[in-house]
Amino acid sequence: MRFALPILAATLVAGLCAVPAAAQQNQQQMRMPCHDSGEIHKQLSRKYDEAPVAFGLQTNGNLLQIYASKDTGTWTVVSTSPAGLSCIVAAGKSWESLPLIKEGPVA
Q1: Do 26 and 41 share a domain, yes or no?
Q2: Reduced 3-state DSSP string for 34-88
Q3: Cα–Cα distance between 61 and 76 in angstroms, integer?
Q4: Are 46 and 72 in a shared domain?
Q5: What whole-number percentage of the chain has pLDDT above 70?
Q6: C-alpha of 31 from chain center
Q7: Which of 44, 46, 73, 97 could make an S-S bridge to 50, C-beta 3.0–4.6 Å?
């Protein structure tokens, strides 16, 4: 029992030290790929046959664009800063466009 306590303590400390390293690795994997807006547009067009289908201005001043392909069903969300740096925020498959919503109050 006298030897079990130090071994248990060492195991707990090693486990706690491993958590930040794993969290840091996940954060690095989740980093958004960023590049010049023209290059992002070119790559999405060439590689995925995607084109802009919607956009909006974010509260931080960035332009949010949604690229999609009718043929492949892929989509990509891109956020572009006023300086022209674009970052891919999300991407996926099975894009479906909804009909435009009629303006005015919904009954």
Answers
A1: no
A2: EEEHHHHHHHHHHHHCCEEEEEEECCCCCEEEEEECCCCCCEEEEEECCCCEEEE
A3: 19
A4: yes
A5: 68
A6: 8
A7: 44
